Amino acid sequence: MPPASSSTLSVSAPAPPKPLHLRRPLIAAAAAALAALLLLAAAYATWRVDSPPAALLARPAAPARFYSFDLVREYPHDPDAFTQGLLYGGNDTLFESTGLYHRSSVRKVELPTGKVLDHHQMDGDMFGEGLTLLGDRLFQVTWLKNDGFIYDRHNFTKRKSFTHKMRDGWGLATDGKVLFGSDGSSKLYQMDPKSFKVMKMVTVKYQDNEVPNINELEYIDSEVWANVWQTDCIARISPEDGQVLSWIFLHELRRNLWNSGNTSIDVLNGIAWDEGNHRLFVTGKLWPKLYEIKIRPVVGPADGSVEKLCPKASLYR
């Protein structure tokens, strides 16, 4: 995907309900209930860089459709890495695909230190995109092309190319059987990893509206998790029908980096899942940090709208 765009998350936002007018005899009881809720919310949160969007605390909602996060640990990350694909490689290592012309690469990274252990520099006319690991093979797609590459995970010099049928190359993930792919639209593809034939394609929707800009992907517990380009949000998608099951809001991560003086960072991008240890890692393009987080349910708007919670990402000043 390009470094910048004016695209937004296209979801509808029904008008909020009119405020209720309480009668005088109920004011004291309502105030006591509100105080109890606030105390519970404060006890539940274990870490805050900044408060979640106000709408997250609006009113009870079940089942949980919205999630925020607790920070477990932060790690160094190459601030020059324009992260396009990220995955956990085992033994505290990550595999990463980076983008931009003349700067794209595939690399193996040591998680605790951020040190690059192995590196393949791509040709200058290639813009690296999504990356996934199936067996001992790393699959990578490229932007604005139908070309991709397969690397030996142990030796990046052993590689071959392939051609896929997606409109473009953005994200890749796998469940160990098929390749899931995105092309920057609202489409989620399932491809055969040998022939690259499209076996199934679904439209990603939330509240009957298409969600465009589906970007970097990760397969986690029977769901496809997707960065939505130019937002600070992750959509948790059913691969069966493309429905967005829930949303994860990560606004604080990029806001905190910006407020700490990291004004050259780009958008949130990069999800890696350590299945064996149930660890979740996220980062972004040109971010100097990679974060291990745990998600937790939060209260969202009663109408389920995310338009105000997942706007196009903006610079924090």
Walk me through this protein's architecture.
With 317 residues, this protein is mainly β. The chain has two helices and 22 strands. The chain has helices at 27-44, 251-259, and strands spanning 66-76, 83-90, 93-98, 105-110, 116-121, 128-134, 137-142, 147-152, 155-163, 171-174, 179-182, 187-191, 198-203, 205-206, 209-210, 214-220, 223-228, 233-237, 244-249, 268-274, 279-284, 289-297. An eight-stranded mixed β-sheet has the order 16-17-18-19-1-22-21-20. Strand 17 and strand 18 (233-237) form a beta hairpin. The two termini are 25 Å apart.
| Main sheet characteristics | 8 strands, mixed
- Compressed to H and E, one letter per element, the order equals HEEEEEEEEEEEEEEEEEEEHEEE
What is the alpha-carbon Rg in Å? 20 Å
End-to-end gap: 25 Å
Mean pLDDT: 84
Estimate the strand proportion. 35-45%
Quaternary structure state of the chains depicted: single chain
Q: Which outline best applies?
A: globular
Strand order of the largest sheet: 16-17-18-19-1-22-21-20
Q: Which residues form runs of ≥5 with pLDDT under 50?
A: 5-52, 54-63
The count of DSSP E runs of length 2 or more, i.e. the number of strands, is 22
Helix content: under 10%
Q: Provide a count of the helices.
A: 2
Which class of secondary structure composition applies to the elements?
mainly beta
